[in-house]
Design brief:
Layout: H1 2-7, E1 11-16, H2 24-34, H3 37-40, E2 42-47, H4 62-81, E3 86-90, H5 95-110, E4 114-118, H6 124-130, H7 133-143, E5 148-151, E6 169-171, E7 193-198, H8 207-219, E8 224-229, H9 235-243, E9 252-254, H10 260-269, E10 272-275, H11 284-291, E11 296-299, H12 304-307, E12 314-317, H13 322-334, H14 336-353, H15 356-372
Parallel strand pairs: 1-2, 1-3, 3-4, 4-5, 5-6, 7-8, 7-10, 8-9, 10-11, 11-12
Helix pairs in contact: 4-5, 8-13, 11-14
Amino acid sequence: MHSSDAAVRRRILLVGPLPPPSHGVAVLTRTLLESPLARRFELLHLDTADRRGVANIGRLDVGNVWLAGLHGARFLALLARQQIDMVYLPLSKNTLGFLRDSLFLVPALARGTRVVVHLHGSGFDQFVASAPAAVRALVRLLLRQTTVAIVLGEALKPMLRGMIPDSRIVVVPNGVPDLRGVAAYARPQDGPMRILFLGNLLPSKGYVELLEAVQALLDEGHDIAVTFAGSVVDSGVHRHALATVRYGEDRILFAGPVDAETKAALLRQADLLVLPSDDEAQPLVILEAMAAGLPVVSTRRGAIPETVVDGETGVLIDKRDAAALADVLRELGSRPEYRSALGTAARERYLACYTVDQWSDRMAAVFNAALEVSS
């Protein structure tokens, strides 16, 4: 029985980066390869990572052109040497990235191979609308031929309308590994309210506004502290942000990029996660915080309102705004019991909706359905 099952496993070629550097798509590619999907399908992988760092993503330089050509050649070799039943590809939402993606899409579609594309972000429609006419035409031509497109929430389905029929757009929320031991950790009730920001230090992530909000509350005498954990992407913005810091590292700490062990330690020590971003779909750090039993303060962007239940598992604001953040943090700091209840509910929602096993089951259902479509 088991040998027969193994013999008929369909072969899927996963295209996508692995860490380092660590960012959402790379982490999800690794999670996919390590998930129970590997027992249901024969997974091949083409690693498209640029080890030079996050800042190089989407840039036009000799290194990126060379890497794109190298990855395209490796993809063609895999198609030629292996019997590939389906190709899985996370889509870029900028012109250079999509042109690189076309090096995978064109040969796979020309060969008649089923293709599942995955949009890990938001704003794909805005990219298409602002792209040159030739790129817009290429996007529509290629996406029209794909088998299935995955988005992270119902709110994100409209960004593909007119490019792919609604019947071929499916919603699969992200899943993250359970942080064993973190959720059960007894957080100390004394000391400052500990705020955690996890993610690359991009201006669009709202870390500057969080810094301003924290400094305002510290000026008012509130007992809070914040740790920013992530890589600096815009050095000019970061230098300006550092120049405004008025408090020592016991209150405002920039920890830099962190590994998995350090991230778990930070989640153990934190009282809440804050991610006031204005360009998100469904951030993995929000799910990791929920797994750790932390309330989440974030913005109403992408699929975040479908993930964080405002007033039940966290608090949402309309946009990244220092004054609005300060108001929320002021209230949470004065109501520790409410904060704790939000964290407990966040953990329960994670277990009900966002574990890796649940994500793997949803992805397997999409893959199986795509493989059943007539080529």
